Structure to design on (336 residues):
Protein backbone atom coordinates (compact mmCIF):
# COMPACT_ATOMS: atom_id res chain seq x y z
CA UNK A 1 0.00 0.00 0.00
CA UNK A 2 1.12 3.54 -0.72
CA UNK A 3 -0.07 6.71 0.98
CA UNK A 4 -0.90 10.24 -0.14
CA UNK A 5 -1.42 13.53 1.65
CA UNK A 6 -5.04 14.62 1.91
CA UNK A 7 -5.34 18.14 0.59
CA UNK A 8 -3.00 20.81 1.91
CA UNK A 9 -2.60 19.04 5.23
CA UNK A 10 -0.16 16.75 6.99
CA UNK A 11 -2.64 13.85 7.06
CA UNK A 12 -1.65 10.82 5.01
CA UNK A 13 -4.26 8.28 3.94
CA UNK A 14 -4.00 5.00 2.05
CA UNK A 15 -4.31 5.22 -1.75
CA UNK A 16 -7.17 2.75 -1.48
CA UNK A 17 -9.92 3.37 1.08
CA UNK A 18 -12.40 0.74 2.23
CA UNK A 19 -15.98 2.03 2.10
CA UNK A 20 -19.21 0.36 3.18
CA UNK A 21 -21.97 2.03 1.19
CA UNK A 22 -24.58 -0.53 0.03
CA UNK A 23 -22.85 -3.35 1.90
CA UNK A 24 -22.53 -3.22 5.70
CA UNK A 25 -25.84 -3.31 7.46
CA UNK A 26 -27.59 -3.89 4.14
CA UNK A 27 -26.29 -6.42 1.61
CA UNK A 28 -23.89 -8.30 3.90
CA UNK A 29 -24.26 -10.25 7.08
CA UNK A 30 -22.13 -8.79 9.88
CA UNK A 31 -19.62 -11.68 9.93
CA UNK A 32 -19.09 -11.31 6.19
CA UNK A 33 -18.65 -7.56 6.56
CA UNK A 34 -16.06 -8.06 9.28
CA UNK A 35 -14.19 -10.48 7.01
CA UNK A 36 -14.01 -7.78 4.34
CA UNK A 37 -12.70 -5.24 6.86
CA UNK A 38 -10.10 -7.78 8.01
CA UNK A 39 -9.04 -8.30 4.40
CA UNK A 40 -8.68 -4.53 3.98
CA UNK A 41 -6.47 -4.27 7.04
CA UNK A 42 -4.35 -7.21 5.91
CA UNK A 43 -3.91 -5.54 2.52
CA UNK A 44 -2.51 -2.41 4.17
CA UNK A 45 -5.60 -0.22 3.96
CA UNK A 46 -5.71 2.18 6.89
CA UNK A 47 -8.49 4.52 5.70
CA UNK A 48 -12.17 3.66 6.12
CA UNK A 49 -15.13 5.64 4.81
CA UNK A 50 -18.76 5.42 5.86
CA UNK A 51 -21.77 7.68 6.52
CA UNK A 52 -24.55 7.81 9.06
CA UNK A 53 -27.14 7.54 6.31
CA UNK A 54 -25.81 4.20 5.04
CA UNK A 55 -28.34 1.55 6.08
CA UNK A 56 -29.80 4.21 8.40
CA UNK A 57 -26.79 4.22 10.77
CA UNK A 58 -26.19 0.45 10.70
CA UNK A 59 -23.15 0.71 8.42
CA UNK A 60 -21.36 2.87 11.00
CA UNK A 61 -22.27 0.41 13.74
CA UNK A 62 -20.88 -2.56 11.82
CA UNK A 63 -17.68 -0.70 10.93
CA UNK A 64 -17.16 0.45 14.51
CA UNK A 65 -17.51 -3.10 15.77
CA UNK A 66 -15.11 -4.41 13.12
CA UNK A 67 -12.42 -1.85 13.99
CA UNK A 68 -12.82 -1.63 17.77
CA UNK A 69 -9.80 -3.79 18.58
CA UNK A 70 -7.44 -2.01 16.17
CA UNK A 71 -4.93 0.64 17.25
CA UNK A 72 -6.94 3.83 16.70
CA UNK A 73 -3.89 5.96 15.92
CA UNK A 74 -3.08 3.68 12.96
CA UNK A 75 -6.44 4.29 11.28
CA UNK A 76 -8.12 7.15 9.45
CA UNK A 77 -11.89 6.98 9.87
CA UNK A 78 -14.06 9.16 7.66
CA UNK A 79 -17.80 9.57 7.93
CA UNK A 80 -20.45 11.95 6.61
CA UNK A 81 -23.43 14.02 7.68
CA UNK A 82 -26.48 15.26 5.78
CA UNK A 83 -28.85 12.46 4.83
CA UNK A 84 -31.98 11.54 6.78
CA UNK A 85 -31.38 9.21 9.73
CA UNK A 86 -33.34 7.84 12.65
CA UNK A 87 -37.09 8.31 12.30
CA UNK A 88 -36.37 10.89 9.58
CA UNK A 89 -38.02 13.80 11.33
CA UNK A 90 -37.87 17.42 10.23
CA UNK A 91 -34.44 18.02 11.82
CA UNK A 92 -33.01 14.57 11.13
CA UNK A 93 -31.19 15.69 7.98
CA UNK A 94 -29.34 18.60 6.44
CA UNK A 95 -26.43 20.71 7.64
CA UNK A 96 -28.03 22.79 10.37
CA UNK A 97 -26.01 23.23 13.55
CA UNK A 98 -28.54 21.10 15.40
CA UNK A 99 -28.29 18.18 12.99
CA UNK A 100 -24.50 18.34 12.58
CA UNK A 101 -23.91 18.29 16.34
CA UNK A 102 -26.40 15.52 17.01
CA UNK A 103 -25.19 13.49 14.03
CA UNK A 104 -21.53 13.83 15.03
CA UNK A 105 -22.20 12.55 18.54
CA UNK A 106 -24.23 9.66 17.13
CA UNK A 107 -21.45 8.73 14.70
CA UNK A 108 -18.83 8.81 17.46
CA UNK A 109 -20.87 6.36 19.54
CA UNK A 110 -21.58 4.00 16.64
CA UNK A 111 -17.96 4.05 15.45
CA UNK A 112 -16.74 3.53 19.05
CA UNK A 113 -14.18 6.30 18.76
CA UNK A 114 -13.40 9.60 20.48
CA UNK A 115 -12.81 11.48 17.25
CA UNK A 116 -13.50 11.42 13.51
CA UNK A 117 -10.46 11.93 11.29
CA UNK A 118 -12.38 13.51 8.40
CA UNK A 119 -16.00 14.63 8.86
CA UNK A 120 -17.66 15.33 5.53
CA UNK A 121 -20.75 17.27 4.48
CA UNK A 122 -22.42 14.56 2.40
CA UNK A 123 -24.23 17.06 0.18
CA UNK A 124 -24.71 20.84 0.01
CA UNK A 125 -27.62 22.17 2.06
CA UNK A 126 -29.46 24.96 0.25
CA UNK A 127 -31.76 25.58 3.22
CA UNK A 128 -29.08 26.24 5.84
CA UNK A 129 -26.76 29.28 5.72
CA UNK A 130 -23.28 28.08 4.82
CA UNK A 131 -21.92 30.20 7.67
CA UNK A 132 -23.95 28.17 10.17
CA UNK A 133 -22.70 24.89 8.72
CA UNK A 134 -19.04 25.89 8.72
CA UNK A 135 -19.26 27.33 12.26
CA UNK A 136 -20.61 23.99 13.49
CA UNK A 137 -17.70 22.16 11.83
CA UNK A 138 -15.25 24.67 13.33
CA UNK A 139 -16.64 24.04 16.82
CA UNK A 140 -16.31 20.26 16.39
CA UNK A 141 -12.70 20.72 15.31
CA UNK A 142 -11.93 22.94 18.31
CA UNK A 143 -13.56 20.41 20.63
CA UNK A 144 -11.25 17.69 19.26
CA UNK A 145 -14.15 15.56 18.06
CA UNK A 146 -13.25 16.14 14.40
CA UNK A 147 -9.69 16.51 13.09
CA UNK A 148 -10.33 17.56 9.49
CA UNK A 149 -13.33 18.63 7.43
CA UNK A 150 -14.37 17.62 3.94
CA UNK A 151 -17.42 17.72 1.68
CA UNK A 152 -18.96 15.48 -0.96
CA UNK A 153 -20.29 16.29 -4.42
CA UNK A 154 -19.94 20.07 -4.06
CA UNK A 155 -19.64 22.40 -7.05
CA UNK A 156 -16.74 24.77 -7.70
CA UNK A 157 -18.64 27.78 -6.34
CA UNK A 158 -19.66 25.87 -3.22
CA UNK A 159 -16.09 24.68 -2.64
CA UNK A 160 -14.69 28.20 -2.97
CA UNK A 161 -17.25 29.68 -0.57
CA UNK A 162 -16.74 26.94 2.03
CA UNK A 163 -12.96 27.11 1.72
CA UNK A 164 -13.00 30.84 2.41
CA UNK A 165 -15.24 30.49 5.46
CA UNK A 166 -13.15 27.63 6.84
CA UNK A 167 -10.01 29.74 6.53
CA UNK A 168 -11.70 32.63 8.34
CA UNK A 169 -12.85 30.27 11.10
CA UNK A 170 -9.38 28.86 11.59
CA UNK A 171 -9.60 25.38 10.09
CA UNK A 172 -8.96 23.72 6.74
CA UNK A 173 -11.34 22.26 4.20
CA UNK A 174 -9.15 19.51 2.76
CA UNK A 175 -11.28 17.09 0.77
CA UNK A 176 -14.18 16.60 -1.62
CA UNK A 177 -15.77 13.21 -2.20
CA UNK A 178 -17.16 13.00 -5.76
CA UNK A 179 -18.01 10.12 -8.02
CA UNK A 180 -15.16 9.54 -10.46
CA UNK A 181 -14.35 6.74 -12.88
CA UNK A 182 -13.33 6.05 -16.46
CA UNK A 183 -17.01 6.51 -17.33
CA UNK A 184 -17.88 9.47 -15.06
CA UNK A 185 -15.42 12.37 -15.40
CA UNK A 186 -17.55 15.39 -14.56
CA UNK A 187 -15.06 16.75 -12.01
CA UNK A 188 -12.17 17.09 -14.46
CA UNK A 189 -13.11 20.37 -16.15
CA UNK A 190 -13.85 22.56 -13.12
CA UNK A 191 -13.71 20.84 -9.72
CA UNK A 192 -10.20 19.41 -10.06
CA UNK A 193 -8.45 22.63 -11.21
CA UNK A 194 -10.16 24.67 -8.47
CA UNK A 195 -9.37 22.03 -5.86
CA UNK A 196 -5.69 22.02 -6.81
CA UNK A 197 -5.68 25.79 -6.35
CA UNK A 198 -7.43 25.60 -2.97
CA UNK A 199 -5.47 22.68 -1.53
CA UNK A 200 -8.38 20.23 -1.63
CA UNK A 201 -7.97 16.55 -2.58
CA UNK A 202 -10.55 14.26 -4.16
CA UNK A 203 -11.64 11.17 -2.22
CA UNK A 204 -13.39 9.41 -5.09
CA UNK A 205 -16.23 6.93 -4.88
CA UNK A 206 -17.44 4.35 -7.39
CA UNK A 207 -14.13 4.04 -9.31
CA UNK A 208 -15.41 0.73 -10.72
CA UNK A 209 -18.77 2.27 -11.72
CA UNK A 210 -20.78 0.07 -9.33
CA UNK A 211 -18.97 -3.01 -10.64
CA UNK A 212 -19.61 -2.41 -14.34
CA UNK A 213 -15.90 -1.79 -15.03
CA UNK A 214 -15.05 -5.27 -13.75
CA UNK A 215 -16.46 -6.61 -17.03
CA UNK A 216 -18.70 -9.12 -15.27
CA UNK A 217 -21.84 -7.74 -16.91
CA UNK A 218 -22.09 -9.07 -20.43
CA UNK A 219 -24.11 -7.22 -23.11
CA UNK A 220 -27.29 -9.07 -23.99
CA UNK A 221 -27.12 -11.35 -20.96
CA UNK A 222 -28.81 -11.39 -17.56
CA UNK A 223 -26.68 -10.06 -14.67
CA UNK A 224 -24.89 -12.74 -12.63
CA UNK A 225 -26.89 -14.03 -9.68
CA UNK A 226 -25.97 -12.24 -6.48
CA UNK A 227 -24.39 -9.27 -8.27
CA UNK A 228 -25.21 -5.66 -7.45
CA UNK A 229 -27.46 -5.44 -10.52
CA UNK A 230 -29.74 -8.05 -8.95
CA UNK A 231 -29.87 -6.46 -5.49
CA UNK A 232 -33.33 -5.07 -4.82
CA UNK A 233 -32.22 -3.25 -1.64
CA UNK A 234 -30.66 -0.42 -3.62
CA UNK A 235 -27.82 -1.89 -5.64
CA UNK A 236 -29.86 -2.55 -8.78
CA UNK A 237 -31.19 0.99 -8.85
CA UNK A 238 -27.75 2.55 -8.40
CA UNK A 239 -26.14 0.59 -11.21
CA UNK A 240 -28.87 0.72 -13.86
CA UNK A 241 -27.52 3.84 -15.61
CA UNK A 242 -24.43 1.85 -16.65
CA UNK A 243 -26.28 -1.22 -17.90
CA UNK A 244 -26.89 -0.07 -21.49
CA UNK A 245 -25.65 -2.26 -24.34
CA UNK A 246 -23.21 0.36 -25.67
CA UNK A 247 -21.52 0.83 -22.30
CA UNK A 248 -21.27 -2.90 -21.58
CA UNK A 249 -19.92 -3.65 -25.07
CA UNK A 250 -17.20 -1.02 -24.78
CA UNK A 251 -16.22 -2.16 -21.30
CA UNK A 252 -15.60 -5.66 -22.68
CA UNK A 253 -13.06 -4.11 -25.06
CA UNK A 254 -10.98 -3.04 -22.05
CA UNK A 255 -10.07 -6.65 -21.19
CA UNK A 256 -6.93 -6.82 -23.40
CA UNK A 257 -5.88 -3.41 -22.04
CA UNK A 258 -6.08 -4.73 -18.49
CA UNK A 259 -4.17 -7.85 -19.48
CA UNK A 260 -1.41 -5.74 -21.02
CA UNK A 261 -1.16 -3.74 -17.78
CA UNK A 262 -1.00 -6.97 -15.78
CA UNK A 263 -4.13 -6.08 -13.82
CA UNK A 264 -7.65 -7.35 -13.37
CA UNK A 265 -10.37 -5.18 -14.86
CA UNK A 266 -11.30 -3.93 -11.38
CA UNK A 267 -7.71 -3.05 -10.48
CA UNK A 268 -7.29 -1.27 -13.83
CA UNK A 269 -10.33 0.90 -13.04
CA UNK A 270 -9.02 1.77 -9.56
CA UNK A 271 -5.52 2.43 -10.91
CA UNK A 272 -6.99 4.72 -13.58
CA UNK A 273 -8.51 7.16 -11.05
CA UNK A 274 -5.28 7.15 -9.05
CA UNK A 275 -3.40 8.51 -12.09
CA UNK A 276 -5.08 11.85 -11.36
CA UNK A 277 -2.69 13.75 -9.07
CA UNK A 278 -5.60 15.50 -7.33
CA UNK A 279 -7.06 12.15 -6.23
CA UNK A 280 -5.79 11.21 -2.78
CA UNK A 281 -7.61 7.89 -2.54
CA UNK A 282 -10.11 5.64 -4.30
CA UNK A 283 -12.92 4.18 -2.22
CA UNK A 284 -13.63 0.52 -2.87
CA UNK A 285 -16.47 -1.60 -1.58
CA UNK A 286 -16.58 -5.37 -1.32
CA UNK A 287 -18.97 -8.19 -0.63
CA UNK A 288 -16.16 -10.77 -0.46
CA UNK A 289 -12.60 -10.53 0.92
CA UNK A 290 -11.08 -11.59 -2.41
CA UNK A 291 -12.53 -8.48 -4.03
CA UNK A 292 -10.53 -6.37 -1.58
CA UNK A 293 -7.31 -8.21 -2.40
CA UNK A 294 -7.98 -7.76 -6.11
CA UNK A 295 -8.71 -4.03 -5.93
CA UNK A 296 -5.66 -3.15 -3.84
CA UNK A 297 -3.41 -4.35 -6.65
CA UNK A 298 -4.00 -0.87 -8.07
CA UNK A 299 -1.97 0.81 -5.33
CA UNK A 300 1.32 2.16 -6.60
CA UNK A 301 0.56 1.34 -10.26
CA UNK A 302 1.60 3.84 -12.92
CA UNK A 303 -0.26 3.35 -16.20
CA UNK A 304 1.59 4.24 -19.40
CA UNK A 305 0.38 7.11 -21.62
CA UNK A 306 -0.35 4.50 -24.32
CA UNK A 307 -2.69 2.54 -22.06
CA UNK A 308 -4.46 5.70 -20.92
CA UNK A 309 -4.94 6.75 -24.54
CA UNK A 310 -6.40 3.35 -25.48
CA UNK A 311 -8.88 3.55 -22.60
CA UNK A 312 -10.01 6.98 -23.78
CA UNK A 313 -10.36 5.78 -27.37
CA UNK A 314 -12.50 2.79 -26.38
CA UNK A 315 -14.81 4.59 -23.95
CA UNK A 316 -15.00 8.10 -25.43
CA UNK A 317 -18.60 7.92 -26.81
CA UNK A 318 -20.03 6.79 -23.45
CA UNK A 319 -18.01 8.99 -21.07
CA UNK A 320 -19.98 11.60 -19.10
CA UNK A 321 -17.97 14.83 -18.82
CA UNK A 322 -20.57 17.55 -18.24
CA UNK A 323 -19.52 19.49 -15.09
CA UNK A 324 -23.12 20.58 -14.58
CA UNK A 325 -23.97 17.04 -13.48
CA UNK A 326 -22.40 17.75 -10.07
CA UNK A 327 -25.08 20.38 -9.43
CA UNK A 328 -27.73 17.65 -9.71
CA UNK A 329 -26.32 15.74 -6.74
CA UNK A 330 -27.52 18.02 -3.94
CA UNK A 331 -31.28 18.23 -3.29
CA UNK A 332 -32.62 21.76 -3.52
CA UNK A 333 -35.04 21.22 -0.65
CA UNK A 334 -34.43 19.57 2.69
CA UNK A 335 -37.29 17.13 3.02
CA UNK A 336 -37.25 14.02 5.19
Amino acid sequence: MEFRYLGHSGLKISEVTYGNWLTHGSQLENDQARSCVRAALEAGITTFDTADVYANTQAETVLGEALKDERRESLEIMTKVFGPIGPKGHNDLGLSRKHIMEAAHGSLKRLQTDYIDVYQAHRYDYETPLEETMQAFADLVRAGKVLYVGVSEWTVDQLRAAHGLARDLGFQLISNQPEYSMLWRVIEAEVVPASQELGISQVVWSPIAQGVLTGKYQPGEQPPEGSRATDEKGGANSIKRWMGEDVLTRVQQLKPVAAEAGLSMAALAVAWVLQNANVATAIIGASRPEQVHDNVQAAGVRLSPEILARIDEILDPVIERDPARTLERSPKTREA
In short: The radius of gyration is 19 Å. Strands lie at 3-5, 12-14, 16-19, 47-49, 76-81, 116-121, 146-151, 173-176, 201-204, 279-284.
